[in-house]
C-alpha cells in the first residue's frame, strides 16, 4: 500500500516538473492595456505553431513584473517601463529583465465636429479635467458649459491620461465616466459641448480630434515622441529570450505578423 | 407494495433535491460575496466606506467612499418610482376595471412584452434617442443624467407594477363591487373607495418588486446615467449608481486587490438593499393578505 502511494507521488512530481520544464508552453501576465494586443497575437501565433501553448492573463503591469521577477511568468506585459525599485529587486534575485517595446499607445482629445476649437494646450486640458475650466469661452470657444467625458479609472487609457495630462492630479468627480472607447466616441459625437479622449485607433469621422500645442496626434508624431500623450508598451523577458520565447517575441515584432495585430487592437505599430 | 412506497420516497427525494438546489446556490453566492467583500474593511473603516464622498479606487493613495454611488442608486430608484407608480397602477386599474374585453386583450400582452425587452435595448434607446432629445429640448449640458436613467428604469418597472397590481385588483371578490354599486355608488367611487383599498396589499407588493428591479438594474444605468461619481445637485446631473460602478470596473480591477474587494463590498450593500425590499414586500403581502371581503 505504502509503495503504491510513493509511486503515485513520484509520478505526480515528475508530471509537475515536466510540466514547468516543457519547452512548448509560455506563460504571460501583466498589463490590461497590452492584453488586447497579446490576445490577438497569441491567437494567431498558436495557429501557426500549434505545438506551443501560451497562457495569457492580465493582472496589471505591476503584478506582471512581480511575477516575472518571482519566476511565475515568462513574459511580463507592461504599459510602463520598470521602476527603479523593481529593477533593483530583480538584480537582487539574479534576474536580468530585458525590455522589448512592442507598440505605442497614443491618446487623442476629441470634441464634437461642430465645436470651433481646433487646438488646445496641455495646461488647458489639465484644468478642464480637474474641473477648473468649466466653460468653453475660457479656452476661446462659445459661451457653453464643458461636459467632460473620461474613461473608467481602471482602464489603461485613463492611466495614460492620468500620467501624461493630469500629472497625478485627480480627474474631477463630475466627469462622465464611460466604460469603453466606443462609448466615449458615442457620447462625444452626440453632445456638442462635450470633450473626451480616445485611443488613436478609435478616432473616426463622428468626432473631431484636437491638436495639442499645435501637434496633430497620429502614428508619426506618436512614434517620434512629439505628441505629448503617447507612451511605449513593453514586453519584458527573464534575461535574453531563447527558444520558443525568442521565437514568439520575434513574431510580435515582425511587421508582417505581430505588428499587424497592434493596429487591429487600436494601437500604433512600431513601423 | 413495498416497492411502491420506496418509489414514492425516491420521487419525494428528487423533488426535495431540486428545491434545495436554488437555496444552496443562493447560499454559496452569498458566502462568496461576503468572503470577497469583507477584506476591504481592513483598509477603510465601515463609516468611511459608506459615508466617504470620494470614489477614486485606482489613484494612489486610493479613496473608497461610496456615498455618491449610494445616493445615486437611491435617487435613481426613487425618481423612477415617482414615474412608474402612477403609470403602472393607473394602467392596472384601467385594464382591470374600465377597459372592455377586447382592448384588454390587446393592451395586456403589449405591457407584458415591455417586460421582455432586454435592458441593453432600453439602455441603447436612452443613450442614442432620449439623451440627444433631452439635450436639445431642455438645453441641458448632457442628456446622460439622473432623469434619463430614471425614465428608462421606469419603463422597466411599469410592466412588473402593472401586471401584479392588475391581478390584485382583478381578484377582488365580485360581491364587494356589486354591494358598492347596489348602495348607489358610482363606478369611480367604487374603484376609489372599494376596489383600490381591497387590493392595496397586492399593489404595494408590486411597487416594491418594481423598485427592487430598478435598484439592481445594471445595463441601463451603465449606459444612460452618465457615470459621474458625484452627489447630484439636480435631477439633470449625471450620476453613477452602484451596479454601474461594479460592471464598469470589475473587469479591470486587479484580482483580490483592494479595488476588487471594494467592488464586492458594494455588491453586499446592493444585496442588502434588495433583501430589504423583498422582506418589506413579503411582510406587506403576509400582513394584508387578501382574504375576500374580510380585507375591508
Give the topology, please.
The complex is a heterodimer of chains A (271) and B (296).
Chain A: H1 2-21, E1 25-30, H2 35-48, E2 53-56, H3 61-70, E3 75-78, H4 84-92, E4 97-111, E5 119-120, H5 122-130, E6 147-151, H6 156-164, E7 176-178, H7 181-189, E8 194-199, E9 208-209, E10 211-212, H8 219-224, E11 230-238, H9 243-253, H10 258-264
Parallel strand pairs in A: 1-2, 1-3, 5-10, 6-7, 6-8
Antiparallel strand pairs in A: 3-11, 4-8, 4-9, 4-11
Helix pairs in contact in A: 2-10
Chain B: H1 2-37, H2 46-51, E1 55-56, E2 63-64, H3 67-98, H4 101-116, H5 119-138, H6 146-170, H7 174-182, H8 187-198, H9 200-216, H10 219-224, H11 242-249, H12 258-287
Antiparallel strand pairs in B: 1-2
Describe the structure.
The complex is a heterodimer of chains A (271) and B (296). Chain A is α/β, with parallel strands linked by helices and 271 residues long. Chain A is built from 10 helices and 11 strands. Chain A has helices at 2-21, 35-48, 61-70, 84-92, 122-130, 156-164, 181-189, 219-224, 243-253, 258-264, and strands at residues 25-30, 53-56, 75-78, 97-111, 119-120, 147-151, 176-178, 194-199, 208-209, 211-212, 230-238. In chain A, strand 6 (147-151), helix 6 (156-164) and strand 7 (176-178) form a beta-alpha-beta unit. In chain A, helix 2 (35-48) runs antiparallel to helix 10. The longest helix of chain A has 20 residues, at 2-21. Chain A is elongated and about 60 Å long. The N and C termini of chain A lie far apart (64 Å). In chain B, 73% of the residues lie in helices and 1% in strands. Chain B has a two-stranded antiparallel ribbon. Chains A and B meet through helix 6, strand 7 and helix 7 of A and strand 1, helix 5 and helix 11 of B.
Amino acid at each position: 500500500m505504502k509503495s503504491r502511494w510513493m509511486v503515485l507521488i513520484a509520478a505526480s512530481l515528475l508530471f509537475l516538473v515536466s510540466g514547468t520544464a516543457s519547452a512548448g508552453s509560455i506563460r504571460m501576465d501583466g498589463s490590461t492595456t497590452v492584453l488586447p494586443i497579446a490576445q490577438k497575437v497569441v491567437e494567431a501565433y498558436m495557429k501557426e505553431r500549434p505545438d506551443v501553448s501560451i497562457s495569457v492573463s492580465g493582472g496589471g503591469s505591476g503584478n506582471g513584473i512581480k511575477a516575472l521577477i518571482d519566476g511565475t511568468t515568462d513574459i511580463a506585459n507592461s504599459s510602463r517601463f520598470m521602476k527603479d525599485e523593481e529593477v533593483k529587486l530583480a538584480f537582487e534575485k539574479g534576474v536580468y529583465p530585458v525590455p522589448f517595446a512592442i507598440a505605442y499607445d497614443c491618446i487623442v482629445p476629441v470634441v464634437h465636429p461642430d465645436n470651433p476649437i481646433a487646438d488646445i494646450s496641455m495646461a488647458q486640458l489639465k484644468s478642464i479635467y480637474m474641473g477648473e475650466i468649466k466653460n468653453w469661452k475660457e479656452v476661446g470657444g462659445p459661451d457653453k458649459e464643458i461636459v467632460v467625458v473620461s474613461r473608467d479609472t481602471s482602464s489603461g487609457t485613463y492611466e495614460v491620461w492620468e500620467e501624461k495630462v493630469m500629472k497625478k492630479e485627480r480627474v474631477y468627480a463630475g466627469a462622465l465616466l464611460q466604460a469603453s472607447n466606443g462609448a466615449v466616441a458615442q457620447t462625444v459625437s452626440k453632445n456638442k459641448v462635450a470633450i473626451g479622449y480616445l485611443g488613436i485607433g478609435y478616432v473616426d469621422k463622428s468626432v473631431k480630434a484636437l491638436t495639442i500645442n499645435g501637434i496633430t496626434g497620429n502614428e508619426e508624431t506618436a512614434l517620434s515622441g512629439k505628441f505629448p500623450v503617447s507612451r511605449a508598451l513593453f514586453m519584458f523577458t527573464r534575461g535574453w529570450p531563447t527558444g520558443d520565447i525568442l521565437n514568439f517575441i520575434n513574431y510580435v515584432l515582425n511587421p508582417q505578423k505581430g505588428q499587424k495585430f497592434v493596429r487591429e487592437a487600436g494601437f500604433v505599430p512600431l513601423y | 407494495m413495498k416497492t411502491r412506497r420506496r418509489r414514492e420516497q425516491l420521487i419525494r427525494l428528487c423533488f426535495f433535491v431540486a428545491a434545495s438546489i436554488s437555496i444552496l446556490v443562493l447560499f454559496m453566492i452569498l458566502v462568496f460575496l461576503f468572503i470577497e467583500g469583507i477584506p476591504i474593511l481592513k483598509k477603510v473603516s465601515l463609516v468611511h466606506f459608506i459615508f466617504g464622498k470620494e470614489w477614486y479606487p485606482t489613484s494612489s493613495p486610493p479613496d473608497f467612499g461610496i456615498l455618491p454611488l449610494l445616493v445615486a442608486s437611491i435617487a435613481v430608484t426613487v425618481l423612477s418610482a415617482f414615474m412608474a407608480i402612477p403609470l403602472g397602477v393607473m394602467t392596472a386599474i384601467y385594464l382591470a376595471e374600465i377597459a372592455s374585453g377586447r382592448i384588454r386583450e390587446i393592451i395586456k400582452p403589449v405591457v407584458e412584452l415591455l417586460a421582455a425587452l432586454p435592458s441593453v435595448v432600453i439602455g441603447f434607446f436612452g443613450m442614442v434617442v432620449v439623451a440627444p432629445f433631452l439635450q436639445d429640448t431642455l438645453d441641458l449640458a448632457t442628456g446622460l443624467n439622473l432623469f434619463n436613467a430614471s425614465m428608462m428604469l421606469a419603463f422597466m418597472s411599469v410592466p412588473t407594477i402593472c401586471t401584479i397590481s392588475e391581478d390584485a385588483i382583478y381578484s377582488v371578490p365580485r360581491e364587494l363591487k356589486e354591494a358598492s354599486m347596489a348602495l348607489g355608488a358610482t363606478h369611480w367611487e367604487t374603484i376609489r373607495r372599494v376596489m383600490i383599498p381591497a387590493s392595496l396589499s397586492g399593489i404595494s407588493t408590486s411597487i416594491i418588486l418594481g423598485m427592487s428591479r430598478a435598484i439592481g438594474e445594471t445595463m441601463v444605468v451603465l449606459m444612460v446615467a452618465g457615470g459621474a461619481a458625484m452627489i447630484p445637485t439636480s435631477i439633470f446631473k449625471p450620476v453613477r449608481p452602484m451596479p454601474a460602478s461594479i460592471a464598469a470596473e470589475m473587469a479591470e480591477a486587479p484580482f483580490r486587490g483592494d479595488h476588487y474587494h471594494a467592488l464586492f463590498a458594494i455588491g453586499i450593500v446592493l444585496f442588502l438593499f434588495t433583501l430589504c425590499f423583498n422582506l418589506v414586500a413579503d411582510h406587506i403581502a403576509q400582513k394584508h393578505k387578501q382574504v375576500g371581503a374580510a380585507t375591508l
